[in-house]
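Recall the central idea of this unit: under ordinary conditions, the amino acid sequence of a chain determines the structure it adopts. In this exercise we apply that idea directly, starting from the sequence alone.
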Amino acid sequence: MTLGQRLRHLRELAGLSQNELAKRANVHRPLISVLESGKQRSVTLETAQRLAQALGVTLDFLAGPGDDEDDEEAPRRRVAVGV
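Accordingly, the structure predicted from this sequence is:
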């Protein structure tokens, strides 16, 4: 799963629009759009930290595959508990 795909998945699980996520993470909304569409594949560490915090996940989880990558419920649990 790419960063953009993971970002979209987590955002949707959290019930947030791109605009709402952008406000929570203090980033521009077009950044969310280009990341989710795959037009941009990376962000600064600071931006990644803001996005992860706004989504309630760890930076490691947002950045790449983890041990539970095959577990479809893992992102839902992490968002729900605000890890």
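The helical segments are 3-13, 18-25, 29-37, 45-55, 59-63, 74-81.
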